[in-house]
Amino acid sequence: MKIAVIGTGYVGLVTGACFAGGGNDVICVDIDEDKVRSLQRGEVPFFEPGLDEMVRSNIDEGRLSFTTDIALGIRESLLIFIAVGTPQTENGEADVSSVLEVARSIGENLDGYKIVITKSTVPVGTTEKVRDTIKSLTDQKFGVASNPEFLKEGAAIDDFLKPDRVVIGVEEESVGSVLRELYAPFMMSADRTIVISIRSSEMSKYASNAMLATRISFMNEIANLCELLGANVSEVRSVVGSDSRIGRYYLYPGIGYGGSCFPKDVKALEKMAHDVGYEPRVVTAVDRVNAAQKERFFNKIVRFFDDDLDGKRIAVWGISFKPNTDDIREAPSLYVIGMLLEAGCSVAVHDPAAMENARAVFGDSVDYFESYYDVCNGADALVIHTEWSQYRQPNFEMIKELMKTPVIFDGRNIYDYMRLEALGIKYLRVGR
Ligand SMILES: NC(=O)c1ccc[n+]([C@@H]2O[C@H](COP(=O)([O-])OP(=O)(O)OC[C@H]3O[C@@H](n4cnc5c(N)ncnc54)[C@H](O)[C@@H]3O)[C@@H](O)[C@H]2O)c1
């Protein structure tokens, strides 16, 4: 099929590359000229495992191209996926202005029947706004659909190629059939396509993300209670997660969730509820617990140093909001590092992929190191924000040797307490 994907971020580029990999002809469109130029050279401007190779091979085989010319993308395609960003505005709602701007371009350039699909995460009713915007600008016939994306950064290609489910929201059966056919190659083992109404489809994305965020905030609350009541949250988690009605995913306590989806989607769901006069108590609490969890972690560091962080040297492992991505949007590390700096610390950071993005936020206010051991040199404490695999079994003797005072604040609970204490390293974690 001939496909245009508008927006070449984490979602749009993975979508474009995976559809091209399945034999479709894909044109990816973006307004960011630098990004498009680097993609035309086969260079992916962000880190996602396996994406470089996939983009390059599909360019070489002539199925994937990049342009800033949206009219060209629209003219050449039957299916137009909108995958632009929908960031959070100041009042918490999702900003759909880029989605509607794309809808206007589609309306102005439609030259025959096309199907327009919102893949961006958008508030309930937005795909109808996309339809109405296009309709107000053209007499051409077109179809619309909602097809929210559920991929996880760091495992995006695998998630796209082997999805738990593909959700297709439609108002016409014929549109649903075309999209079912498009996704059929990813459904060889079993059909996991769910065709529903457009509004249910839009809502299902927010409900899924809010449910996952709820599990994390719930376990963070249990972890805090474990600390106060002398229980061990890892032991508690293993019991809770072994219940087949609950399952063991997304039950890890820590310094709170971050990233470009959970924080903004929880907020947007809260705003959607308020807009229809409903008080969403659970969703609001999920967000509050998450904010408090970062503060609680930082306060642990403050208390350890008797309320005096001024002049302390703090080593940081991990800036990205989770491993295997360079994405630092809403990462808990940003809050903690910001607070450390405000308290007068000097901060040395390491992250295997996110250093460039960190530089854009912190500039020269922190020191950047290529080696995660060098970060520890002369440090009063080591703070772990991200459970990158290389941090999991470090040489603790060397760390102890390098640090001024051997103390680790672990926001991800990745080490064995007994082992570190035996080595003479003070180890402070979450939920114990
Ligand atoms: N990142 C994820 O893990 C993830 C997962 C599922 C869903 N989503 C949703 O998918 C959407 C995209 O997220 P992302 O992380 O890929 O965003 P992103 O910020 O990485 O990329 C968005 C891209 O859209 C481009 N863009 C903005 N306005 C444009 C316009 N008018 N025309 C053409 N291009 C334009 C930007 O230049 C950018 O390259 C969001 O709604 C997000 O909530 C994201």
Description:
The strands form two sheets. The protein has an eight-stranded mixed sheet with strand order 3-2-1-4-5-6-7-8, with helices on both faces. Strands 11-10-9-12-13-14 form a six-stranded parallel sheet. It folds into two domains: 2-196, NAD(P)-binding Rossmann-like Domain (Rossmann fold, 3-Layer(aba) Sandwich); 197-432, 3-Layer(aba) Sandwich (Rossmann fold). It has 432 residues and is of the alpha/beta class. Strand 10 (346-350), helix 14 and strand 11 (367-368) form a beta-alpha-beta unit. The chain has helices at 10-21, 33-40, 51-60, 70-75, 97-109, 126-135, 156-161, 173-183, 198-229, 233-241, 262-275, 281-304, 332-342, 355-362, 396-402, 417-422, and strands spanning 2-6, 25-29, 64-67, 79-82, 114-118, 142-146, 166-170, 193-196, 313-317, 346-350, 367-368, 381-384, 407-410, 426-428. The model has no long low-confidence stretch (mean pLDDT 97). The radius of gyration is 23 Å and the shape is globular. The protein is 43% helix and 14% strand. The protein is built from 16 helices and 14 strands.
Describe this structure in a few short sentences.
With 432 residues, the chain is an alpha/beta fold.
Strand order of the largest sheet: 3-2-1-4-5-6-7-8
Q: Give the strand tally.
A: 14
Q: Tell me the span between the first and last alpha carbons.
A: 54 Å
CATH class assignment of the largest domain = Alpha Beta
Portion in strands: 5-15%
Proportion of helical residues: 40-55%
Rg calc: 23 Å
SS element count, helices:
16
Q: Sketch the major β-sheet.
A: 8 strands, mixed
